[in-house]
Amino acid sequence: MVTVSSNVQAIGRIDFEDLQGERSYSGARAYNQSKLANVLFTYELARTLQATLVTANALHPGMVRTAFGAEDPSSAQRLFTPVMRPFMKAPGRGAATSVHLASAPDLEQETGRYFASSKPRRSSRRSYDQAAAARLWQVSADLAGLTAAGATTAARSWSRSSRRGPSPRSRRP
Q1: Could you give the percent of the chain with pLDDT greater than 70?
Q2: Which residues form the domain of 60?
Q3: Are strands 119-121 and 113-116 parallel, antiparallel or unpaired?
Q4: Would residue 166 count as lying in a domain?
Q5: Which residues are catalytic?
Q6: At what angle do helices 27-48 and 130-143 cross, to 10 degrees?
Q7: What CATH number has the domain bearing residue 38?
Q8: Are 150 and 141 in contact (CB under 8 A)?
Q9: How far apart are CA 66 and CA 6, in angstroms?
Q10: What's the number of domains the chain is made of?
Q11: DSSP letter string, 114-129
Q12: What is the DSSP letter of 165?
């Protein structure tokens, strides 16, 4: 398993009290939290699959020239992107670490690691919090309806959302 995260996982914080940003939403905060969640989840998956031949690793692809965030850029992004664009990786180079993790024979036994530029790196201190990783795993299973408690919660949530229609953030003009 290869999970694409980002070095912004280092500034992410998991807000279990408002995990889905329903009380207070910030695009940047949600993105940073999601990237930390990617790493926590990957490390928990690696621990869960420890006795199998399946490996799970996360990576930072680098700053890649894509249209990411172009639909709703922040002020900082509007200023930052044109200046940084010449230094950003082409999409093919940005995918290199993902391809390397998925196909390198020397990584067949490597699991529960974080990579950047195809090399193992240390992820943030928060990403090694095993209690937070286990809690995120359980909450995710509940939200996905993969547990008895979650099936009830997911059904209630689906029922409410289907009556309301799509959230304002998910509507397209």
Answers
A1: 69
A2: 2-123
A3: antiparallel
A4: no
A5: 31
A6: 100
A7: 3.40.50.720
A8: yes
A9: 14
A10: 1
A11: EEETTEEE---GGGG-
A12: -
